[in-house]
Amino acid sequence: MGKRPGAKYAAVQRLNTLMADHQKRMTAKDEARARGESLFAFTDNKIHAFESRNNYQKIVMRFIDWVRDQHNIRDLARIDLEADELASLYLLERIERDYSAWTLATERSALRMFFQDRTLTDCVELPKRRREDITRSRWPAIRDKHINPENWQHVINFCLACGLRREELRDLRVHEVYPRPSDHRLVVCVRHGKGGKDRQVPVFPGREQAVLSQVTGRSPGEHVFTKISGNLDIHSYRREFAQQLYEHLSGKPLPPLTGRLQSANLDRDAALYVSRCLGHNRIDIIFGHYIR
Question: Are residues 118 and 155 in the same domain?
Fold first, then answer.
């Protein structure tokens, strides 16, 4: 008689079935829109990006370890039967340990995807996500003491010219930097960015040389960067790019750090343009996480 697979092995197999290989989430949204479905908090109960899959798998594995250690349950079938209660207790413990609102929301999303239940843990009220609680790239960090920025100016200047994510910089190849045929403007083409989406990022006006200096005379198939220090705060340069591009496009100063946003003081078109350059499509993300 065969041995019953462990909970972690079975969980990985389930996650494999949830992967929508070579299917874009945008296509699923378009199909839902055509059916007249609401796109608020849209999901097709599939995972479309490998980065999301990796993050969700880490969360699910931590949850399974917790269930084993705290409740001595080692069978995924039994975990399925008690999923709502176990997941609720897990999140409540995380809330008591003061995990951030963003971390908790991501963990709940991962567990809801894994158990295919959009109402899982509805009885648990998560902390509200507030802009003033965002700390990423806002304050000095320990890693800042372990790097000399002067040695990485070529990477930093490249980031300030196009605002790419760390993974996008890592995967970028020389042939993906080129003048756009329609207007000859230098662009950086991101293949399979966050959410599996492709995009063209026009280089910040006046910063073209920072990009060209990294690709000129090199083989088209080479990676633009062969090494990027893990101590470089790439997100901070991405945020600086967003702020400076917004000011350049809008001709307006950045919104104040405190208080409510006033529509009269904002340039929504500029914010949407910046959002799309960064690989988002929502201005609330830009105002909440980058421009303020």
Answer: no
User: Measured at the alpha carbon of residue 37, what is the angle toward residues 36 and 43, in degrees to the nearest 5?
Assistant: 145
The answer to whether residue 137 sits within a structural domain is no
Angle of helix 101-115 relative to helix 50-71, nearest 10 degrees, comes to 90
> What global pTM score does this model have?
0.61
Residuewise pLDDT in 10s, the chain (292 residues):
456 678 999 999 999 999 886 666 666 666 666 777 665 555 777 887 788 889 999 999 999 999 999 999 999 999 999 999 999 999 999 999 988 888 999 999 999 999 999 999 999 998 886 655 555 555 565 556 657 888 999 999 999 999 999 999 999 999 999 999 999 999 999 998 876 789 999 999 999 999 999 999 999 999 999 999 988 999 999 999 999 999 999 988 877 766 666 666 688 899 899 999 999 887 777 777 777 6
How many folded domains does the chain comprise? 2
Alpha-carbon dihedral sign for residues 85, 86, 89, 94: negative
Look at residues 100, 129, 158 and tell me which one is the last residue of a structural domain.
Answer: 129
Its domain, for residue 166, covers: 142-291
Residues in the chain: 292
Cα–Cα distance measured from residue 64 to residue 58, given in angstroms and rounded to the nearest whole number:
10
Distance between terminal CA atoms of the chain?
61
118 and 186 both lie in a single domain: no
Residues 166 and 230 in one domain: yes
DSSP strand pairing (177-179 vs 199-202): unpaired
The reply to whether 148 falls in a domain is: yes
